Amino acid sequence: MSSQAELDKVIRSEYEAGFTTLVESDTLPPGLSEDVIRFISAKKGEPEWLLEWRLEAYRKWREMPEPEWAHLHYPKVDYDAISYYSAPKSMEDRPKSLDEVDPELLDTYKKLGIPLHEQEMLAGVAVDAVFDSVSIGTTFKEKLGEAGVIFCSISEAVQEHPELVRKYLGSVVPKSDNFFAGLNSAVFTDGSFVYIPKGVRCPMELSTYFRINEANTGQFERTLIVADEGSYVSYLEGCTAPQRDENQLHAAVVELVALPGAEIKYSTVQNWYPGDENGKGGIYNFVTKRGVAHDNAKISWTQVETGSAITWKYPSVVLRGDNAVGEFYSVALTRHAQQADTGTKMIHLGKNTKSTIVSKGISAGKSSNAYRGLVRMGPRAENARNFTQCDSLLLGDRCGAHTFPYIESKHPSATVEHEATTSKVSDDQLFLCRQRGIDPEKAISMIVNGFCKEVFKELPMEFAVEAGKLLEVSLEGAVG
Amino acid sequence: MLEIRDLHAAVNGKAILKGLDLTVNPGEVHAIMGPNGSGKSTLANVLAGRDNYEITGGQAILDGHDLAELEPEERAQAGLFLAFQYPVEIPGVSNMEFLKAALEAVRKAQGKEEWDSVTLLRKAREACKQVNLDAQFLKRGVNEGFSGGEKKRNEIMQMLLMEPRLALLDETDSGLDIDALQTVARGVNSLRSPERGIVLVTHYQRLLDYIVPDHVHVLSDGRIIKSGGKELALELEQKGYGWLTGEEESA
Ligand SMILES: Nc1ncnc2c1ncn2[C@@H]1O[C@H](COP(=O)(O)OP(=O)(O)OP(=O)(O)O)[C@@H](O)[C@H]1O
Ligand SMILES: [Mg+2]
């Protein structure tokens, strides 16, 4: 399969860490304590201030109750049973070839049309020839460098750009913001960092995909994106192939800072393992995503969620400056026994701020899909406007959709509009498709795709196509 | 090509077709007329395989395929096309996307060459033109917000592209203005060919002025009670159905 030329490009992954080893072992026994946090921080060679920051987060977290209000049911997570640090898997521990990987996963990759070498990478196969993406990665770094864009792992940023990290880390999601964010602040291991300088339009879409070979960022990922005045960046999180992941609990934090006149577009396609028909296995995804938009800035979240056993996620925008704009476009598909409780918060603080929410929930099987949205108009939010549209589509009659809009308005001139619909894929629609020769699975996926159109058109082109394909694959067997 | 013998069918358990016989040979155009509720749409739906429309006796054979044994999409792939009396909307799915999926499935099953997107677009534009629909309709959601007449023309546009072996048109003429009626009739006539059968369900002689049928049948209470040539339609226009069904003609 791999030609000699490709093998010439062999790069051995080296996991010699850029820090001094203080403790012998590379994987911690389960459990969380201040010592564990000191260990993580030391392992990563972090400065004193960051260790203090983590410890403070930990102390506050211990006082916090775990939220119970989400429309979700799951067995309690035992936080003392988790190991909070394990060194990236060595090559020897990984599957040696695709033969050792779950065939069902491979089947899905195939349906998504993912090239073989990418399949290996996604499945975590120990490939030491790192194919094309190395060269892509390099040209890409050069191009970003010319524009002055910083795009690196957050650990690297702590070392190379401490002033930026220190200024903005926790500025959007304070370390004691909520239970999961608190836990993340205490123990986060890695994630991405982006800085776009003043007036710069980032010359390409930034994607975690390019960093996937460093993907062992664990279950407590931390992302920080800072767009300086008048700059623009589009960031794509995740990639559309289902990821193999042994971690049960994910508690990530994403912080976006859009300084005056800046624009950040953040797109996610998430499809972690959702668990089987009976709800066994799968990822618990508890994420805190929030952005602050200053004067005339714009933050736009677009997400397509098909994975995870449990999703608890409310990407939010704080419209701090005057004329700031916040957008949230979401498609959440649940099937089998999946549960999703997602939505957004738009906090209008500045004058003439404007937010748009379009949420599309699709439920199949015996899954449950809830939208929870908060729109708050602060006392200074003169002429602030929100428009919310919340549509649910049910496939079959064993699933459920719920909508929980919360509106708080402290300014009389603010306007809030809310529209909600629930529909089913009708027998008539299905029959029309089948009468034209289209098989029912394809028909359902086409109808569902149509239902999601308003959201898909917000995604970057290739992503939209893949998201469509992904829905198709996810819906297989959802008919009947 | 279509051979219906002593067909009995029930909708949600209620018997509607009660021993219907009909033979359509290649190249023929048949018109089916009959009072409201007599079972015309039921016949079309039974042939196309709609859920809850169950064949309880007899047979319908299309080119050697026993239709009862085929899924609806397989019947379509075998060349059966139904232009609906009430075409349904599919929001967000563009007409073009829909046509592409349909044509891919049907042409593949029929062993015809696949049309690339350029060819498809060209053919689709031509078909639109033929039924007097602006090409913009290809970009809109399937029937989404279309007027009644536009929906009907959209069905004919699809039919032109699908090149069916057997076309069933359920009251395609209802709700059309006079110009649209002629446009649709021209479209249907352009499909008339020695390889193709066409079955028109209609209430009005008017359509049959433009699409002249080879045979006219009267369906009443689930059975064909009279068949004749094109002149039968004229007679029905004058006399109504009462003289055939044995009921009093309503004033
Ligand atoms: N889903 C259903 N459940 C119960 N009865 C039904 C159903 N669909 C049709 N019917 C009945 O079957 C009979 C035949 O209906 P059908 O629609 O075939 O009539 P039609 O000849 O097409 O009438 P029209 O000229 O009004 O279109 C009617 O009495 C109708 O009420
Ligand atoms: Mg009818």
TrEMBL record, chain A:
Pfam families recorded: SUFBD_core (PF01458), SufBD_N (PF19295)
Q: Which residues form the SUF system FeS cluster assembly SufBD core domain?
A: 210-451
Task: Report which superkingdom the organism of origin falls in.
Answer: Bacteria
Instruction: Fetch the InterPro entries from UniProt.
Output: Fe-S_cluster_assembly_SufBD, SUF_FeS_clus_asmbl_SufB, SUF_FeS_clus_asmbl_SufBD_core, SUF_FeS_clus_asmbl_SufBD_sf, SufBD_N
The chain positions of domain SUF system FeS cluster assembly SufBD N-terminal read: 142-202
Family of the protein in this entry:
Belongs to the iron-sulfur cluster assembly SufBD family.
PANTHER family in the record, alphabetically?
FES CLUSTER ASSEMBLY PROTEIN SUF, UPF0051 PROTEIN ABCI8, CHLOROPLASTIC-RELATED
Name recorded for this polypeptide? Cysteine desulfurase activator complex subunit SufB
UniProtKB/TrEMBL annotation, chain B:
Every copy of the ABC transporter domain together lies at: 2-246
Keywords, in A-Z order: ATP-binding, Nucleotide-binding
> Does ATP-binding count among this protein's keywords?
yes
Query: Does Nucleotide-binding appear among the keywords?
Result: yes
Q: Name one GO molecular function term.
A: ATP binding
List the SUPFAM superfamilies.
P-loop containing nucleoside triphosphate hydrolases
Q: InterPro entries, per this entry?
A: AAA+_ATPase (IPR003593), ABC_transporter-like_ATP-bd (IPR003439), FeS-cluster_ATPase_SufC (IPR010230), P-loop_NTPase (IPR027417)
Q: Please report which protein family the annotation says this sequence is part of.
A: Belongs to the ABC transporter superfamily. Ycf16 family.
Protein known as: ABC transporter ATP-binding protein
Organism source for this protein? Alcanivorax xiamenensis
